[in-house]
What does this fold into?
Amino acid sequence: MKNKTTLLNMISGLILQFFTLVSGFVLPKIILIYFGSEVNGLVSSLNQFLSYITLVEGGITGVIIANLYKPIVDHDNYKISSVLVTADRFYKKIGALFIAYSVILSIAYPLYFKTEFKFSYVCSLTLILSLTLLIQYMFSLTLKTILNADKKGYIVNFTQTLIVICNVVIALISVCVYPSIHILKLISGFLFILQPLIFGKYAKKNYRINWKVEPDNSLIQSRWNGFAINLAAFIHNSTDITVLTFLASLKIVSIYSVYCLVSKGIKQLIESCLSGISHTIGQAYARKDWKELNQKLDIYEYVVFVLVFSLFTVAALLITPFVLLYTKGIVDTDYNQPLFGVLLVISEALYLVKLPHLNLAYTANKFKEITLPAYIEAILNIVISVVLVRKFGLIGVAIGTIVGMTYRMIFHVYYTSRIVPERVQSIFYRKLFLFSVGSVIGFVICHRMLPFTNITVESWVVHAVLYCIVIGIILFGISLLFFKQEMEFFAKYIRR
It folds into this structure.
């Protein structure tokens, strides 16, 4: 049953990521065609500024979920209710604060950043874009935490998939009937009402939640243990656009956001594929079964490296040709940025390869111990990006991200060796070296022997197939030569 639930969560996660990926390409394309790069950059910039409210959360979601595991297993309805009441009150406070923040931002943004748009245009768009987050904080997130903690992520995933599909369909109809970015985003925001309706109905049927019990305020205090991790993840995902908004232009922001469609999409796809594995790491650590834990870490690392290096090597080759096809006919700025595309791919790859070690620290409840490195990563990312962006533009922010990611990767590999007996750091770096060599060889072969002569949809598809074959053969050969045992362990895990 557990394996079936894990499989259902993984499949539903993959379905969600597929439709999210499709939506992520369709909706910006609609904006670019009907409204231009400036509007696309404005929407991306405003969304990033609005997402700053998540910093106030301070890592409470991770703490809430971690404190729900045991009472769910023990069927302790009082404790479950207490944790959820605590979460609900806290999220609603954030929601109230977010309303004030959105109003201030709607006034301050058009006054500070000089754009081609009128004050009323930017102000109203800001308030409309805020609806998505507001609905979630006020009505959805509390119920979402218990579903995720109870391994009912598939309900969350299928609900979000429904929203994504509806959003794309309605957006296409909207621009055909009356092309307005305000109407398009207003519809998108109100669609999120489906979340609390579906989550609430399931929770009412399957959980005995008493919303009148006393909250456990100690959870609010412990959220700061997860704040640094939350901050580092936020900076990785959001700061680059903010830096570019301040020090570059909205058209540069548009370029960045279009390239991110590819890199972030692949990242989310890989995270969905791995979503069911991290729990097994946590369970082995809880049992103090070091032999099993080391074995599962080996498998986890191997799977991560295979996915990351195969998909991102191909992405490094194809990202710029794809962007040029995607923005064909858009001539208000230059989307041909091959070096930036490669650096962006590298930064996302570095973020992902540390996932086994980061998730181990999470499941082992080592939030406090990994706080300082998270802050250091954030500082490195911001400072280097700000210093380099004026001279190198997009390249500068990509370098800042790479440096921060590299530091954090090194730390987490080291920290795993501290908390897991007999875990040797060289195991990770051996994988990193061998797969990096294979990736570089594959990239050079494809780039030199199979270059693009003319970028069309047909040639892109052909090159994608050829690149996948070449990279696949090389990495499969490395697996057979050096990681046969990990391949066998993973095959057994899948069969179970």
Notes: The chain has a mean pLDDT of 86. The CA atoms of residues 20 and 164 lie 6 Å apart. The radius of gyration is 23 Å. Residues 231-496 form one domain.
